[in-house]
Structure prediction request, 234 residues.
Amino acid sequence: MSRSVLVTGGNRGIGLAIAKAFTARGDRVAVTYRSGEPPAELLGVRCDVTRTEEVERAFEEVEAAHGPVEVLVANAGITRDGLLMRMPEEDFDAVLDTNLKGAFRVAKRASRGMMRARRGRIVLISSAVALAGEAGQTNYAASKAGLVGFGRSLAKELAPRNVTVNIVAPGLTSTDMTAALPEERIRQIVDQVPLGRAAEPQEIAHAVTFLASPEASYITGAVIPVDGGASMGH
Ligand code: NDP
Prediction:
């Protein structure tokens, strides 16, 4: 069964891997992008998730092309790392506005159609840092931990309508986001990973497509770590 899938921030990194994984399963996949061009094989809709009117327009475009969104993956995210003592308030706000409130904006818009259809799947991309914490990432960890409370509350709100909401918490994954980290820092992080390496974006995508699959029909409000064992015990 082909479904209408929307992945935010799906033009590169983890989001692109997720979009490709759904495409390979035969779904009709749209991705949001902000700059550049989206991959040719995907429907790209320009959208900054910090702008409510752009979110509305993106959903209208996707609905016109693919029908109401049946699977939403809230993946768009940024980092603005720095120690709290030196963190400008704008960096805290920007990360919360994109990572947490961006998910609020798209999930709210997607919920409308899913409630009407009495089915749907929402997957929020959080982070292993949400539960374990990380020095220099108070803003990012707060936003990603916020997604857990947000997602679990939404899971309870939407369960009577047969809509599941789950949270995927990736560990260090090889993308542009982590390419910016110094090699020494990457080595330190990988040293804490029982499987001894970073994830490939496709490995995150597999967890997401599973949560959106019929096989995951009884899973909601779950936080699934995909982190090589790094956050065990959190
Ligand atoms: P990238 O930096 O490679 O990609 C980020 C994506 O988010 C891009 O498509 C970017 O669009 C999009 N994006 C950022 N801000 C906005 C915005 N305001 N509106 C719309 N789109 C936006 O990151 P990753 O692929 O590594 O990360 C994807 C998700 O996974 C993020 O939520 C991240 O926090 C999370 N994550 C990543 C980990 C990692 O180690 N890489 C670990 C744990 C979680 P554009 O190209 O236009 O900038």
